[in-house]
Design goal:
The protein has 125 residues and is of the alpha/beta class. The protein is 17% helix and 40% strand. The protein contains two helices and eight strands.
Amino acid sequence: MNITHASFVTLPVSDQDRALRFYVDVLGFEVTADRQMPPGRWLQVAPKGAQTVFTLSGPGMGGFVPGSARGIMLLTTDVDADCARLTAAGAEVSGPDELPWGRMAAFQDPDGNGLMLLTETTEGD
């Protein structure tokens, strides 16, 4: 096998503009693609420098159900600060909780897609 990384993860959304505001303004992602193509708008965002991007798939793009993505783990250097920012933006956050592998929290985007934040524990912590 010669796989090097995942190209993109599909996040089904009902309103691409609303999702774009959340991922850019709240999470700090950058737009990597935004263009019209049949059958609709191809919109992708990602954390700065990331290899894997997130496709904000709107209505008519593949028959995905908005809010159906789950278990997407985002690594962060400061889960507590990120949780505070999400809460200030009106997102409901569960955690952060101290776990053997790090501090982790869960939240949802405006469509209900389930994401998690993790600050990993390093040897000696």
